[in-house]
Every structure is written in C-alpha cells, then in structure tokens.
C-alpha cells in the first residue's frame, strides 16, 4: 500500500511539473503574441504615416513643378519686356533726334522768312511804290506782285508744316515715354513676382527635403517593427513546438502514471488476497488444533502449496487482463492516428486564408526576399508562423511551401505576383493538410 501511495505521489508531481511548464509556455506565447500585435499596430501606424507623408510630398512636388513653370514663364516675359524696353529707349532717342532736326529746320526757315520779310517790307509802302513805278507795264507789275504773294504764301506753308511736324514729333515722344514707363513698371512687377516664385520654390524644396527625411526615418522604424514581428513569429513558432513537445511528454507521463497506478493496484490486490488466505488458513488450523490435535507438518505444507498455486493462477489471470487492455488501447490509438492522417497528409484544421504581394503597400517596402531568404513565387510561397520553413501545405488541391512569416498559426497568407490578384483573392477559409 505504501509503495502505491509513493508511486502515485511521484507521478502526480511529475504531471504537475509538466502542467506548470505548459502553462508557463502558454503564458510566454500570449506575451509574445501581445508584443507582436503591438508591433503590428506600430507598423500599421508607421505605414499610414509613410503613406500620408508620401501624399504630402507628392503634392509639394507638384506645387514645386508649377512654381518652376511659373518662374520659367516669368523669366521669358521679363526677357521680352527687357527687349521692348530697349527698343522703346532707342525709339525715344530717334524721336529726340528728329525733334531736334525739325526744330533746327524750323528755326532756319523762320530766319530766312524774316530776312525776306525784312527785305520786302522794311521800307513800307515806298518799296511797293518803287516796285510799281519801276515796272515797264501793268503785266510786269502784276507778275512782281504775284511773286511776292507766292513767296509769302510759301513761307506761311513751310512755317505751318514745321510747326505741325514739331507737334507730331512731340506727340510721338510723349507716347513713347508713356509706353516706356508702362514697360518699366511691368518689368519691375514681373521681376518682383519672379523673386517671390523663386523664394516659394526654395521653401517648397526645403519642405520636400524634410518630408523625405521623415519618410526615411519612418521606413527605418517600419523595417525595425517588421524585424520585430518576424522575430516574434519565430519565437512563437518555437514556443508552440516546445508546448507541443511538453504536451506530448505530459501525455506520456500521464500514461506512465496511469500504468504505474494500475500495476500498483494489481499488486496490492494480490497481496491483500494472499493475506486473507493466510489469515483464513491460520484460523482453520487453530480450530483444528483445538478440536483434533492430530495436525501434522505435512498437511500444513500441502495447504501452503495449494495457496501458492492459487496466487499464481490469479497473477496469470491479471497479466492476461492487462495484455487484453493494452491491446485494446493500442487499437484505439491506431484508429485515432488513422483518422488524423489521411491520404492527403496530416490534417491541421480549417484555416483562414488571405493573400499578399511584394509591393510596398503589403510589405512596407517593395521587392523584399522572404523571411527564409528565398525569392517569393506565386503558386509556391505562403506565410505562416508555428511551423518550420520548408513545410509543405496542401490547400484546395495545391501544394504550397511555408517560406515567409507575418501571420499566426492557423492563418495562411498566400503570395501573388501583383496587388490586384491579392485583393481579388480576399478572405477565405479552407481545410489544410501538412505533407512533410
């Protein structure tokens, strides 16, 4: 009986230690999964920040492109205005020269006319009377008077002509000066606008550089979080394998404890039966000694032999019963194994299926290798934690290889060549079998 109690205590302690280790492993897995979820949340936030900053950076780049176009346009306008201002300057110089020339011709004409008038009329009517008297006849007098009249009319016409010319030149000068002033004003305005655009372009370039630096920092943070998630997946996979190994060890320990308990119970039963036989025998012999007193050592020996033979028969029967029970347990284990392992491989369960590709939206950065270091390929590569890299999974009649991480055990992420196919796949579920 003491041996049975000790065996049960030892088995209980061993099972309890395995349960404690299993609970500790499950707690570590929960902590690691919590850390992974926190890292995934941080990664999602970092990717959202990167996307937002990329959008703002693109807006600034578009704005900078517009500013550069405006600056180029203003440069061309300023160049044209500079040419026009130069032309107006030359035009004003030419007008000034013409004005001076016209003024000089007008002054000369005025001086000549004064001389003629002075010559013709300095003596008043005497000169006219002398001209009349000196004429041979009336015709000569009329001709002479007509000539004087024509000269006077010519002088008036020429004077009027030069006055009109001067007035025209002055008007041209005024118009040219006004145009030159307008051109200079527009040139100054465009130059100021050009300076403003140049300053805006410089400020926008600085903002773009700042966003580039922020995006780079966020990408580094996302890469660190991705590495942390991959590390957590590896740790979770190792802990799951450890938990499965501990669970198997626990089951073996429970089976051994049950076998030990059963064996101890059978041994105690045998000992108790033997003790009862001995007590009964002693009582019988005592009664006989009291009544007959003819008890011999030979009879005592025969009865002991019969008791031993009876014990041996009981032990053989119990051994046969144990053999039958072991055979039944083995048959049940074999049946259970056959239900779990079919012709399609080891059945893992009904798993969640999603899809991803190698773009920046799915992976943070584009063109990455898998966590196992391979180049991902559609129709082959899947991601799932909890199993070693290289594990082959049978899903919907297709054979995939676990080459990447990113999803927990029970969630298979299937690789596609492009983002549109991954989106079209959506969220599904399927029976999953392990082939190796």
Structure report:
- The radius of gyration is 60 Å and the shape is rod-shaped.
- By secondary structure, the chain is α+β, with helices and mostly antiparallel strands.
- Helix 1 (2-121) runs antiparallel to helix 3 (138-291) and helix 3 (138-291) packs antiparallel against helix 4 (297-340).
- The protein has a six-stranded mixed beta barrel with strand order 2-6-3-5-4-7.
- It has helices spanning 2-121, 125-133, 138-291, 297-340, 360-363, 419-425, and strands at 341-342, 345-356, 381-383, 392-395, 398-404, 411-415, 428-434.
- Among the domains are: 88-204; 343-434, RlpA-like domain (Barwin-like endoglucanases).
- The longest helix is centred in the middle third of the chain and has 154 residues, at 138-291.
DSSP summary, beta strand count: 7
Give the helix tally: 6
Cα Rg: 60 Å
Beta-strand portion reads 5-15%
Shape: rod-shaped
Topology:
Layout (H helix, E strand, L loop, with lengths): L1 H120 L3 H9 L4 H154 L5 H44 E2 L2 E12 L3 H4 L17 E3 L8 E4 L2 E7 L6 E5 L3 H7 L2 E7 L2
Parallel strand pairs: 2-6, 3-5
Antiparallel strand pairs: 1-2, 2-7, 3-6, 4-5, 4-7
Protein name: Peptidoglycan hydrolase PcsB coiled-coil domain-containing protein
Keywords: Coiled coil, Signal
InterPro entries: 3D_YorM, PcsB_CC
């Amino acid at each position: 009986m003491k041996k049975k109690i000790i065996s049960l205590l030892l088995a209980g302690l061993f099972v309890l230690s395995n349960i404690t280790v299993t609970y500790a492993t499950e707690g570590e897995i929960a902590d690691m999964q919590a850390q992974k979820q926190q890292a995934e949340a941080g990664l999602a936030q970092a990717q959202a920040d990167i996307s937002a900053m990329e959008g703002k950076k693109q807006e600034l780049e578009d704005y900078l492109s517009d500013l550069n176009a405006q600056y180029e346009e203003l440069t061309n306008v300023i160049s044209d205005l500079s040419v026009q201002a130069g032309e107006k300057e030359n035009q004003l110089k030419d007008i000034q020269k013409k004005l001076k020339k016209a003024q000089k011709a007008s002054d000369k004409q005025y001086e000549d006319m004064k001389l003629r008038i002075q010559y013709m009329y300095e003596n008043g009517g005497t000169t006219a009377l002398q001209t009349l008297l000196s004429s041979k006849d009336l015709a000569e007098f009329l001709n002479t008077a007509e000539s004087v009249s024509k000269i006077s009319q010519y002088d008036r016409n020429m004077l009027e002509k030069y006055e009109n010319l001067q007035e025209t030149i002055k008007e041209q000068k005024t118009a040219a000066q006004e145009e030159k002033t307008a051109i200079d004003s527009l040139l100054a305005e465009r130059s100021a606008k050009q300076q403003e655009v140049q300053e805006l372009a410089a400020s926008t370039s600085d903002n773009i550089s700042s966003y580039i630096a922020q995006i780079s920092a966020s990408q580094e943070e996302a890469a660190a979080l991705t590495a942390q998630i991959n590390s957590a997946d590896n740790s979770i996979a190792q802990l799951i394998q450890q938990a499965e190994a501990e669970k198997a060890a626990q089951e073996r320990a429970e089976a051994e404890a049950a076998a030990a308990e059963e064996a101890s119970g059978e041994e105690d039963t045998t000992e108790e039966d033997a003790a009862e036989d001995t007590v009964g025998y002693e009582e019988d012999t005592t009664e006989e000694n009291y009544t007959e007193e003819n008890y011999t050592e030979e009879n005592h020996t025969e009865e002991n032999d019969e008791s031993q033979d009876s014990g041996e028969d009981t032990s053989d029967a119990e051994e046969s019963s144990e053999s039958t029970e072991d055979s039944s347990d083995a048959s049940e284990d074999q049946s259970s194994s056959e239900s779990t392992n079919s012709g399609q491989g080891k059945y893992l369960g009904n798993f969640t299926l999603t899809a991803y590709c190698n773009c920046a939206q799915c992976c943070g950065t584009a063109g990455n290798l898998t966590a196992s270091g391979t180049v991902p390929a559609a129709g082959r590569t899947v991601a799932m934690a909890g199993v070693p890299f290289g594990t082959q999974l049978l899903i919907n009649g297709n054979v995939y290889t676990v080459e990447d991480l990113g999803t927990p055990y029970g969630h298979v992420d299937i690789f596609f060549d492009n983002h549109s196919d991954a989106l079209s796949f959506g969220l599904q579920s399927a029976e999953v079998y392990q082939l190796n």
